[in-house]
Amino acid sequence: MEKFKKFSGIVAALDRSNIDTDAIIPKQYLKSIKRSGFGPNLFDDWRYLDPGAPGEDNTGRRPNPDFVLNQSPYQNAQILLARENFACGSSREHAVWALMDFGIKVVIAPSYADIFYNNSFKNGLLPIALSASTVDQLFDDYEQSDDFYLDIDLENQRVINAAGVQMPFEIDEFRKYCLLNGLDDIGLTMQHAEQIKNFEQQYYTSCPWLGKA
Amino acid sequence: MAGQTLYDKIWAMHLVREDEAGTGLLYIDRHLIHEVTSPQAFEGLEMAGRSLWRKDSILAVPDHNIPTIGLENGITDPVAKLQVDTLNDNCDKYQLTEFKVGDIRQGVVHVIGPEQGATLPGMTVVCGDSHTSTHGAFAALAFGIGTSEVEHVMATQCLIQKKSKNMRVTIDGPVAEGVTAKDIVLRIIGEIGTAGGTGHTIEFAGEGITNLSMEGRMTLCNMTIEGGARAGLVACDQTTIDYVKGRPFAPQGDDWEKALACWQDLHSDDDAVFDQEIHIDGASIEPQVTWGTSPEMVTAISNAIPDPATVPDAVKASGMQKALEYMGLKANTPFDQVKIDKVFIGSCTNSRIEDLRAAAKVAEGRKIADTVKLAMVVPGSGLVKQQAEAEGLDKIFTDAGFEWREPGCSMCLAMNDDRLEPGERCASTSNRNFEGRQGQGSRTHLVSPAMAAAAAVTGHFIDVRKLT
After folding, report:
1. Domain limits of chain A?
2. B83 in A contact zone (CB under 8 Å)
3. Residues B173, B176, B182, B183: what is their CA dihedral angle, to the nearest 10 degrees?
4. What are the chain A neighbours of B82 within 8 Å (beta carbons)?
5. Which one is the CATH code of A7-182: 3.10.580.10, 3.40.50.1100, 3.20.19.10, 3.30.360.10?
6. What is the ipTM of this complex?
7. How far is CA A144 from CA A116, A141, A148, B113, in A?
8. B315 falls in which pLDDT band (50, 70, 90)?
9. DSSP designation for B416
10. Half-sphere exposure in the Cβ direction for B119 (13 Å, CA)
11. pLDDT of A44 higher than 80
12. Are A45 and B440 an interchain contact pair (Cβ–Cβ within 8 Å)?
């Protein structure tokens, strides 16, 4: 996983709450056995006027001109601004892969569905939760600008706008540490392999129907 | 010190270690895998040169992509076939237990786990599928995970977790005749909202819950995720034990006695404290039907389609308006004037034998309405199908004009060919009414199996209790 560095990125906004994972990446694209290549089908139903199919070249499809990610300069968006309960629904990590494959590195919303929130960190996508009133303000600023940029400083846990206004956010220390250092969870857990084995020994002695000690 | 909740107890039983910040390493007993969210995990393991920690914890089954018709020709969609073949190859390579297509035990992953006794009380159960919450019906801590976590469990038998908060939803008193687990859970979601349970594990309690069969409890816990909570729980009682006893993966002999002794403690202590408590009067619950594009957009069948103009919160009203436009519905229309095109009875929510019996009871001696283009019944597993056929339910359905299909996830998420055309309206026993869920432009109304059958035979939504 790449280390998460401070950056300044253009913001695209989707003014909807409860954006679900079926909207982020529709089910037909989940047939892939790879982690990459989902970007062209991110928000597929909203992004194209005609239906698509997995493995199909999307360049021949008709883009929906009203959809933000089809408009300049938002094709290059690195930050997505949304409303409450972002990415509710299924556990598909493909939702995270599709956002990242498109180029999104940060989502800003008042709240997230638990599974998506968790999946994001495993892939280096940073979901930032800001208060509903701060998110309201960001939507207002976004509406009044043709190219709305924000700085993301994970180390200091700040979102910073062009005027220098700092918006602090909370993040679990362990997750922050993993993102900043690009660390792989499995490698970290394997450091505790002995402890897991000892646990199993005791556990199977007291619950023999679950396995052999 | 206050007593422990059921969630607290299962958490403590499985906690391998915890750091100062409260991040735990949780031991996983049962890992269910399917074809859609596992291939990248196997690939990741191989790329890192890692092995599987405990192969016998894994039970695999293909379900999401499986055609429910014409299976004698195999899977004809090459992309879907590659995914199923990849699961087969991985399971063969690592010698994992898999119920392949053609095995009578094959079916929807959340149906076959309990059916085989692979889900046991007190276990931790995970699967790369959000509806893993289903298994909480067995007083097992069960939740959906992403593919990175699938790989993590394969490699370490553990998950990195922070403990969630405790919430309890109590259904006081019994529910009325004709009201099912589906109606109870839809009513709960309507009450708490689709994000109401975020960050919590929800325990369901009260007479309305303990009266439910295991099938009903699975329906209830299945949809916990639609209320925002990753896991739902029902305490272990005699109903649980009677269901588990004698199933292929269940303990036997001495082990069974030891397990029984341990399972006696799988309930919240009387003095346990919950972070949130919700009470609903069981008698107040009516058959439910969703009208919008989120499971929280639900109401009792006796109400009309809600009117956004009566909602003071502007953001909420605009969300309702968008949903009504997508659904092609007008505010204040009574549900019996909402005509349907198709009916889907199936999914990990409602494809078990009790669900099929309830739908067949309504369909018996009736015909599907002329205006209904397709009504299909998709059993949850090969064994459910066999049982239903032994009881003659297939005959009741086909006589009424329903199609009787092979097991799989089918039109719940429409990854196979079972899908709605744009603008088609479906009475569905599945769990999500999101935009495009059952096919691009599809319009889904979530209902119980009995309510779906009632819609099939009348051609519109109707309180099933009126069909006597």
Report:
1. 7-182, 183-213
2. yes
3. -100
4. 31, 33
5. 3.20.19.10
6. 0.94
7. 30, 5, 9, 53
8. confident
9. S
10. 28
11. yes
12. yes
